[in-house]
Amino acid sequence: MNKRGIYTTILVALTVIVLGAGGIYLATNNSQSTKVEAQDQKSKPKPKKKAPKKKISQIDKDDKDMVPLKKFKYTMSSEKKAYPNLQEHPNAWIDVDITTQRVYIMDGKTQLYEMYASTGEDDATPKGTFHIEPERGEFFYTKPLKLGAFYWVSFKDHGVYLFHTSPTDVQGNYVESIAKTLGKKPSSHGCIHLSTPDCKWIYENVPTNMTVKIHGTFNEARR
């Protein structure tokens, strides 16, 4: 082989060696980059999924002194604390919330007492601002409805729309199926049902002309 051939062979060999080394370098470098990227991806915290908002039920909003609704009976006061002394709250008023099936005794924006209630089915309880009327009594019975109640107090139309206890029969025996709806859903013909102690307190303590505000819409699906 002449010198020119030898030089050509050596040049080709060197080229192969250089290209091979470069390929090895690139492959190694690419492998390291891939590892670094993989480590970066592992080190980056995955975005946390937002926890769904907890649905706040009416029970969660009730006064801490309320008797738990599961244990509550129509023969009980709604709260474990004493009823307010209205002589100390001359500007007290009654807030009836149809949405929550609650009656609140208020002084301005301060809640004095909370009561489980049951308002009119099919939105039968009138809404608006009313005042306690002079008419009240210890017991009534309506023959057409075959229902009566204790401790009634009128707030509209002078004996038509009342606060009163859960309904009774003519002998004064409570209708248990209706009494169980207190604080849960509407069950009246338009009046506002309360437990016996709560209603007796209103009958004995709430003065004529006290303001009564009734508002809201009941939606069982939201409870």
Describe this structure in words.
It is a single chain. The protein is built from four helices and nine strands. It is of the alpha+beta class and 223 residues long. The protein has two domains: 1-41; 59-222, L,D-transpeptidase catalytic domain-like (Beta Barrel). β1 (92-97) and β2 form a beta hairpin. Mean pLDDT is 85; it is low at 11-28 and 34-38.
Outline:
This protein is an alpha+beta fold. The protein is 26% helix and 25% strand.
Please give a handful of descriptors for the protein shown.
2 domains; peptidoglycan L,D-transpeptidase activity; 4 helices; globular; Transpep_catalytic_dom; transferase; 25% strand; alpha+beta; 9-stranded mixed sheet; L,D-transpeptidase catalytic domain-like; 223 residues
Architecture blueprint of SSEs:
Blueprint: H1 3-43, H2 58-61, E1 92-97, E2 102-107, E3 110-118, E4 128-131, E5 136-142, E6 147-156, E7 161-165, H3 176-179, E8 192-194, H4 196-205, E9 211-215
Parallel strand pairs: 1-9, 7-8
Antiparallel strand pairs: 1-2, 2-3, 3-8, 4-9, 5-6, 6-7
- So what's the overall shape? globular
CATH uppermost class of the largest domain = Mainly Beta
| Residues in β-strands, percent | 15-25%
**CATH topology name of the largest domain:** L,D-transpeptidase catalytic domain-like
Q: Biggest sheet: strands side by side, in what order?
A: 4-9-1-2-3-8-7-6-5
Taking Cα atoms only, what radius of gyration do you get, to the nearest Å? 38 Å
The number of strands is: 9
Main sheet specs = 9 strands, mixed
CATH architecture grouping of the largest domain: Beta Barrel
Mean pLDDT: 85
- Low-confidence runs of at least 5 consecutive residues: 11-28, 34-38
CATH superfamily of the largest domain: L,D-transpeptidase catalytic domain-like
Helix content: 25-40%
